[in-house]
Amino acid sequence: MSEKGASVGDKSMVNRYPDGEPRLDRERTAEQLKRFLELAVRELNLAVEYQISCPDDAEATPDQIDVLVAFTGSDSALLLERNAELLLALEHVAHRWLRLDPRMHDRVRFDSGNYRSARLAELKLSARVAAQRVRETGQPFRFNPMSARERRLIHLELHGSAGVRTASEGAGDRRQLVVYPAGKK
C-alpha cells in the first residue's frame, strides 16, 4: 500500500487485547503523527516543539493512552487559549489524518503544559463530588455545557456508581450532563 493510502484505521495497523479490544500499532502511529505534525506546525507557523511518546504498556488497559503528543515552546500558550481550542482542533485533524476509528480517539492525545491531564483529573473529581452531592441531597446535579468527549468521561467515571445515574440533555453547544439519583426519572 502506498504511503498516501496507509492509515492507522486499517486492519493491519490494529492489534487486539486478549479480550478483543483494539490496540494501535504505536510505532506506525507515531511515524504518521510525525509526518502530520511536521506539516501542520510548519504551515500554521507555530513556534512549538513536540515530543511523541508511547506510555509504557506494562499494565495495558483498553482505556489507556497509546500515543501522547506533548507541545512546548513560545506558542504553546496559543494552543491553550479558549479552553485549548487550537490544541483540540489539531488533535481532531490528526485523528482524521490517521483515519482513526472514533473508538480509538482517546488513545491518541495531544497535550501542552499538562493542560489535558489536569483537565481530565478535574472532570473525574467533579464527577465524584457531584455524585456524592446527589446521593446526600437526592437532587439532580447539572454540569455546565461541555464537549461530548468531556461528557463521556464523566459518564464513564460514574458508570456503576451506587445511587446515581447520568444522562446528557440539550442540544449542540448547550448539551449538558446531569447526574440523577438512581431511583428518579
- What class do helices, strands and sheet pairing give? alpha+beta
Sum up the overall morphology in one term: elongated
CATH architecture of the largest domain: 2-Layer Sandwich
Mean pLDDT: 85
Total number of distinct structural domains: 2
Hey, roughly how much beta strand do the residues contain? 15-25%
- State the end-to-end distance: 52 Å
- Give the C-level CATH assignment of the largest domain: Alpha Beta
Fraction of residues in helices?
A: 40-55%
Question: Can you tell me the CATH topology of the largest domain?
Answer: GMP Synthetase, Chain A, domain 3
Task: Find the CATH superfamily of the largest domain.
Answer: K homology (KH) domain
Major beta sheet summary:
3 strands, mixed
* Number of DSSP strand runs: 8
What order do the helices and strands follow? EEHEEHEHEHEE
**Spans where pLDDT lies below 50 across 5 or more residues:** 1-13
Strand order of the largest sheet: 3-4-5
Count of discrete alpha- or pi-helical segments spanning 4 or more residues: 4
Overview of this structure, please?
This protein has 185 residues and is an alpha+beta fold. The chain has helices at 26-44, 76-98, 115-137, 148-158, and strands spanning 14-16, 22-24, 49-53, 67-72, 108-112, 141-142, 164-169, 176-181. The chain has a three-stranded mixed sheet. Helix 1 crosses helix 2 and helix 3 (115-137) packs across helix 4 (148-158). The longest helix has 23 residues, at 76-98.
